[in-house]
Structure formats: structure tokens, C-alpha cells
Amino acid sequence: MKNVDLQIDARWIATVEDGTVLEYNSVVIDGGVICDICPTAQARLSYQPTRLHSLPNGLLTPGFINLHNHCAMTLMRGVGTDLALMDWLNDAIWPMENAHVDHDMVALGARWSMAEMLSTGTTTFSDQYFYPEAVAAQAIEMGMRCQLATPIIDFPTAWAKDPAEGFQKTVALHDKYKSHPKVHVALGPHAPYTISDATFNQCRTLADQLNLRIQCHIQETQGEVDEAIEKTGQRPIARLEALGLLGPDFQAVHVVALNDQDIETLARYNVSAVTCPDSNMKLASGFARTRDLWQAGVNLCIGTDGAASNNDQDLLSEARSATLAAKGSSGDATALNLQQTLQMMTLNGARALGLEDQIGSIKVGKQADLVAFDLSDPFIQPLADPLSALFYTQRAQVDQVWIDGQLKVDQGRIAGLDIDELVNAVKHQRKSMEPQ
Ligand SMILES: [Zn+2]
Predict the structure, then answer these.
(1) The pLDDT value given to residue 19
(2) Do 71 and 58 lie in a common domain?
(3) Which residue range(s) make up the domain with 349?
(4) Given CA atoms 148, 152, 158, 164 in this order, what sign does their dihedral have?
(5) How many whole angstroms from 74 Cα to the centroid of ligand 1?
(6) What are the residues whose beta carbons fall under 8 Å from the beta carbon of 403, sequence distance 6 or more?
């Protein structure tokens, strides 16, 4: 019998490695790393765990990876409901941001976002917002993994007066966290319509020098594409290709308004595409061609986007929207099947972040970032397929979340977090942000 830290016996395990769901297997964890996956009967003979966790009606999945978020926007949840994208930005969001974004506001909003992400099974996220240093501190305190795409934009913000200051602060943040196991700094040029060629060129140079990823909102609406053609003579993706921006380190967010040539270009440069279906539907931006992106071999990932445009941070409900939108918009019921959907929110996210050797699937040698769902709800029964139950019934409860084998969520409670105190602080902050 070998002594180990933790053994989780599960009715079902969706490893994401080979597209199968294991039954009556156990995941064995030592030192935060998965050291064995085997039938439970065999694990009981081989291991003496310090902690044994049993999921008789449970499904174990890898921790979810939310690849696009503006975490602090949880404080703007519900602002500007039922407005179109540009009206929503110009009339509702940007005025509130301009008046109220500061270090402490971002720290509080990010913490609130992380609480919701953790309690709904997300263990790794990407953020793109002002004061990324505040988000880094909160993520470290919560024990979450993150990519911080620093906000680069061609006009003054509360965080940086111009792109040069944004790049300078990005380098400082990179230097601070370059050896941190969970915090990864990236560049977040906002969008082609707010970034000049010169600023994009600087992003590419800095990304190459420091080995940083680049995340950018791309072709979110047809209007954005039409305007770009009018101004530059090029579609944004063609412009980025010409500038040499595209590559496997590039994460293109939204990619709603794509033609066949755009999809071919994204595939050719091994760009990761990040779909945010709830935001796209809510702001009437349209449906991303996720089936075509997947078929073209593009690494398709998913994000919630900020809570102002969603309004939640729950990646499972986002993925449910993605698979339904893929089918409904393509007329193909096999589009984005549930194994692909689960892969999109785990392993593909890990690939986009360059972390596929560490996270994204349940595999020996990877970090033990895991989520346990309880599938015993009466209205999930009769249960034909655990993934179908997980995605479609909306009744699967997150029971536990582990990061590096450490229990972060247990029966709805987040380790080390006073949720009542936090929600009071959030309500107080929001009240101070309402127009007088
Ligand atoms: Zn966004």
C-alpha cells in the first residue's frame, strides 16, 4: 500500500484525454499532481490516502478554463440591459468605468468574479482589465490560476496614459511574476478599431521578446468589419496577418463576423479562437461559426466575457449556450458535440495558454485541478449519459473543486472566504458607482 495525499472515487470521470467517460474509477493525487487513474477496486488495494473522497453519484471533470473575462465588471452586472454593443459601451459602460475604475474597485470586483468562477467549477481564467496587478494579488490569495492580459489601448485610461506606459507596466508585471507557478502575464490589445499599426507592432515585438501571449477582441460584429474595410481597406484579420501578429500565441476573442478566408487564416496560423456566446447573443452581435472553426482545426476555446455583458461567470452555462448555438445556427445537430464542448472549456483552453502539459485534462503527471458534480438530482433522472445530464439539465451541482489537489470549494462553500462580507462590500461599491 502506497501512502498518498488524496484519492477520489467517482461514479464517472470525464478525463477529456480520449473522449471517453470512465466508470467506477479513482483519481489518485500526491503532492498536488495526479499520480494514478485506475479502477476503484484496484485503487483500494494499492493506495492508503490521507483523504478519501467518494462520489457515488458524481461526475469528475478537469477544472474549467475561462479564457476571456473582464473580472472586475462583476461590479457592473446588469448595467445597460437591452442595449446594442456600441450604445452599451458608449452610454452605459465606458462612462461608469471612466468615473470609477481604480485599484481597489478592480480588486473587489475581481474577487467577486473569482468567487463565482470557483463555485461554478472554473479553476483557471484569463482577465483583460485595468490594474492587472490588483487581479494578480486576488488570484494568488484565492489560489486560482490566471492569465493577465494587460489592457493596451490607443487612448488614456485610469491605468495607463498611453500604450507606452501600458507596455512599461506589462514588463514590470511580467518581471514580478515570471517565476510564479499560477500567474501568467500576457498582452491584451483591446481591438483592431482601438489599436494602431504601430501599437500592434510593439505588441508583437514585446510578445516575442518576453514569450507573452496576445489576447485581442477580433471581429465581434459585422459593423466592426465593415468599418475596418472602409477605413483601412482590409478586414481586421487580414490586417493582423499583414502586420505579422497572428501565431499560436494569439488568442482571438469573439470572432463572430468571419468569412471563409478569415477561418482559413486563423487555422493556418494556429490561432486560438475564444467564443463568448452569451455576450454575443445578449448584445445581438451574432453567432460565431464554431462548427466551421472546429472543422478547420482552429483551437476553439470559450470565455464568459465580463459580467456586464453576460451577466454571469458560470462557464458551464456558457458552454451550454455554445453547443446549442453551434447546432441552432449551423443546422447541424452534430455540431460541437458534448465531448468537444468539454474539450473546448478545458484542454483547448490549456493549449491556448501554453499550459497543456500542466492542466486541461485528467491525466497522470498533470496538476490535480478537478471539479466534482453531483448528478443525483431527481429531475436529472433517468440518466442516460452523464455529459448530457451535465450540460443540458442545468441541475448538476458543483459539490467540490480542487486546485493542485487542495479543496477550494466544498458543498457551495469557498475555502477561506466570507461570502456575506464580500457581497456586502460589492453592494456598497456598486451603490457608490450609480449615477447621482
Ligand atoms: Zn471582452
Answers:
(1) 86
(2) no
(3) 64-353
(4) positive
(5) 13
(6) 63, 123, 143, 144, 145, 367, 368, 369
